[in-house]
Every structure is written in structure tokens, then in C-alpha cells.
Amino acid sequence: MNLRDKYNIPHNSVITIAGTVGVGKSTMTNALARALDFKTSFEKVDSNPYLDKFYADFERWSFHLQIYFLAERFKEQKKIFEYGGGFIQDRSIYEDTGIFAKMHYEKGTMSEVDYETYTNLFDAMVMTPYFPHPDLLIYLEGSLDDILSRIKLRGRPMEQQTPVEYWEEMHHRYENWINNFNSCPVLRLNINDYDIMTDEQTIEPIIERIGYFIEQSKLLKK
Ligand SMILES: Nc1ncnc2c1ncn2[C@@H]1O[C@H](COP(=O)(O)OP(=O)(O)O)[C@@H](O)[C@H]1O
Ligand SMILES: Nc1ncnc2c1ncn2[C@H]1C[C@H](O)[C@@H](COP(=O)(O)O)O1
């Protein structure tokens, strides 16, 4: 029996992976999709026309980048809906507004008018009864030191050149954000509690917890 059936995970589930840059979302997305035989939805990094420019000049490009990510994530959302679920999604749409846009506005690298335009668009597109929320959000958490090592290990040039204070601020904001997040059920995983890179079998206890969480949240909805 495959792990999806073993732990009663509905084949049309939508599971989104959240967490700060470098924490291990893409790695977890791939591992879960393989284990559950689900499709993947990734954010565009290499082909993103604004990302390098944004890191070089936050003030100039933060609005453009947010609009780009919003459009891309919304297209992915539509695709997931059209397929009828069965997806692991790398990063939730909620982090765009709850972390990134908010942080740049509050730090002065996005203007007030741009922030208002962006949040109005986000609310009109996402915060509606027509927008399907994921069945589960898996939040990956780890210490700032571990995350900084992973960013270094991955070696994306524009991230290496970004001051540590940026990642520190983001790490802090993520903790507050997840403590107040209630748009869908949340399963928190500490990155020190699993080791899917050296042993993919360690995914099974995570899948067991996913099955339990989805079951519990269905019962709560009734
Ligand atoms: N479970 C893990 N154990 C050890 N290293 C990991 C693990 N998950 C990810 N990494 C490493 O950390 C770096 C960032 O991982 P990635 O999945 O790209 O993060 P994210 O998608 O959250 O930005 C990569 O170099 C990856 O190989
Ligand atoms: N909404 C966003 N605003 C600014 N930067 C963003 C946003 N979403 C993703 N990013 C950046 C952060 C990373 O440099 C890359 C990819 O994110 P990752 O967490 O590594 O998957 O895009």
C-alpha cells in the first residue's frame, strides 16, 4: 500500500509549504510529492524577470516584484483548481502579503500608495469566498543560524549579497506571522526533527502527521 492510502490522505488534497527563504520548502515539496504521488507547484525563481533587480534596489522594484509574484501564484492556484487538487505547493500566497509586501512597506522600501494598491488587489483576488484555501499549510521552522547556513549552501548570488539583517528581520516576522495565521489548518515542523536529505524514509512520520491533521480538521469543520 502506498503512503497516501496508508495514512488516508485524500488524493485531491492541496498542501502548501510555508517558511522563510532557505528553510527547505522546495526540498520538502519534492519529497512529499514523490511520496504521495502528487503534482508540484513551484514559484518561479530562475526565470523571474524582477528578482535580481529587486535585490539590487528594493525601493525601485518591490512593487513590480509583488505584482509579478501575485500574478504567478494566482495562475498556479487556477491550475491546481483545474486539476482538481492533488498538489504540493512551494510557498503559500499568504506569505506574499503577510511577510514580504508588509515588511518592505514597514521598512520604507515600498511606498504607501504602492502598498495600498497591492493589498487592495490581493484582497480582491484572494480574500474572497471563491478562493479555495489549502487543506493544510506545513510551516517549516528553524534557527536563524541554520537558515543562514542553508542560504549560503544554496548559493544564489543575489541572496549572498543581501545583508544578514534582512534575513534576521524576515525570520522574526515569520514567527509572529505564523502565531497569528488562521486561514487554514497548520502543521509546524522543526527542521531539526527530520532529515529527508540523507534518508528519504524519514518522510513517513511526517506523512502520518499530515494524515492525522487533515482528518482532524475535517472533523472540526463538521
Ligand atoms: N532537510 C534538509 N536537510 C539539510 N539540508 C537541506 C534540507 N532541506 C533543504 N536543505 C538545503 O537547504 C538549502 C535551501 O533549501 P530549499 O529547499 O531550496 O529552501 P527554500 O525552498 O525554503 O528556499 C538547499 O541547499 C537544500 O539542499
Ligand atoms: N513576495 C515576495 N517578495 C519578495 N521576495 C520574494 C517573494 N516571494 C519570494 N521571494 C524571493 C525570496 C527568495 O529570494 C526567492 C525564492 O524564495 P524561496 O523561499 O527560496 O523559495 O524569491
From TrEMBL:
InterPro entries: DCK/DGK, Deoxyribonucleoside_kinase, DNK_dom, P-loop_NTPase. It holds the Pfam family dNK. The active site is at D90. The keyword ATP-binding applies. Substrate binds at E43, Y55, Q66, R91, D96, E159. GO terms for molecular function: ATP binding; deoxynucleoside kinase activity. One of its GO terms (cellular component) is cytoplasm. Keywords: ATP-binding, Kinase, Nucleotide-binding, Transferase. ATP binds at G19, T20, V21, G22, V23, G24, K25, S26, T27, R150, I151, K152, L153, R154. Residues 15-214 form the Deoxynucleoside kinase domain. Belongs to the DCK/DGK family. This is Deoxycytidine kinase. It comes from Metabacillus litoralis.
